[in-house]
Write a structure and sequence with these properties.
Strand content: 15-25%
Radius of gyration: 17 Å
CATH topology: TIM Barrel
Helix content: 25-40%
Number of domains: 1
CATH architecture: Alpha-Beta Barrel
Oligomer: single chain
Largest sheet: 7 strands, parallel
Shape: globular
Structural class: alpha/beta
Strand order of the largest sheet: 3-4-5-8-9-10-11
Length: 260
């Protein structure tokens, strides 16, 4: 590992996270990431092993399961180690494997934040992300609801997902934004300008699909360690969240630092 690469990023200027995290979308039922993970105890063991390996940033969402990814994280890791940071998302729900609904209404987000507190067994969500902009709701209203939850002590940091620069700027006029989570990898660099823009503003960029995988299917298009190392070298604000259901693959992913 080269000495000039930071292995951590200060999320929101407050929470130091290992830039090699874990994405929990796969710890749900199949097909369609719907229902509870069928090998529940194996999933718990994998999450616990991740912490042993130094992973301290875990990314989840209401839509994963729905709610089951949040629940397995809590079952595996609660009570959380002091340095563990849990991120989840709201504004998207799933009622069947192929029935995904975007709802950015303030009342919906407020309710989902309260449910996430229960599912994650916390009194304060480290990072709550708007999963997707609802075209029927002004982003100022959606982010305003999350900011109200932050002011109420339910959310520590606010993030955005599937966002463009225009909506990011609008959101930043309402509340401090700690992270952006968009699709980005070695083969799909359309978000390159936004990576640089977020870096300039001290905002974490969390690339989903870091290995080029289809979100609803198993398998990756890119070699794992090479693709992850490329992302970690690309910008110091990038925090990668590869997801896997294999402890062997998890351990291989963590060894990526040896290549950076």
């Amino acid at each position: 590992m080269t000495n000039d690469i930071n292995t951590t990023f200060n999320l929101g200027g407050e929470l130091a996270v290992n830039r090699l995290g874990y994405g929990a979308m796969r710890l749900t039922g199949q097909p369609g990431n719907f229902g509870p993970y069928p090998k529940w105890d194996d999933g718990k063991a994998l999450l616990q092993r991740a912490v042993e390996l130094g992973v301290n940033f875990f990314d989840s969402a209401r839509a994963y399961g729905p709610e089951w990814a949040d629940k397995i994280i809590a079952d595996a890791l609660h009570p959380y180690a002091e340095n563990v940071v849990i991120a989840t998302k709201g504004g998207v729900d799933k009622f069947a494997p192929d029935q995904i609904v975007t709802d950015g209404l303030p009342a919906t987000l407020t309710r989902q934040i309260d449910q996430a507190l229960v599912n994650l067994r916390v009194e304060l969500i480290d990072l709550f992300q708007l999963h997707r902009v609802d075209p029927k709701v002004a982003i100022e209203e959606s982010v305003g609801a999350i900011e109200a939850a932050r002011q109420a002590g339910k959310v520590r940091l606010i993030g955005l997902s599937n966002i463009d620069r225009t909506n990011l700027d609008r959101a930043m006029s309402i509340a401090p934004i700690a992270s952006v989570q968009n699709r980005f990898n070695q083969a799909e660099e359309a978000q390159s300008d936004l990576v640089d823009y977020t870096a300039e503003h001290g905002i974490a960029f969390i690339p989903y699909g870091p290995l080029g995988a289809h979100p609803m299917k198993q398998g990756a298009a890119l070699p794992a360690q090479e693709a992850l190392a490329w992302l970690l070298r690309r910008s110091p604000n990038i925090v990668v969240i590869p997801g896997t259901t294999s402890i062997g693959h998890l351990e291989e992913n963590v060894r990526t630092w040896d290549l950076v």
